[in-house]
Amino acid sequence: QVQLVESGGGLVQPGGSLRLSCAASGFTFSSYWMSWVRQAPGKGLEWVSAIDSGSGETLYTGSVKGRFTISRDNAKNTLSLQMTSLKPDDTAVYYCARDYAGRYDYWGQGTQVTVSS
Prior knowledge:
globular, 7-stranded mixed beta sheet, mainly beta, 0% helix, 4-stranded antiparallel beta sheet
């Protein structure tokens, strides 16, 4: 069955960096766009970034552009999100999700990122 397992979250000071990973299994990872979506405390889901199946195209929401970098390793079935210059507003649970036909059909369990001094 399809599984997405995130890791790499934690507590970091403002201005710090974290690298999130998502291990994918149960499907042909290289055939799908993948996304990172986050949910801040008390708020709704917010799309953060997406990458096409072959790593040729990447997309970012405006608030993270220039600070976050999405990447993937199709040989290892792994999606990553390198986050730098982190701000308290980046505090959220971060999910990786599989894109299919304009919607997210599978989600991971999420990993908590807390940016605080």
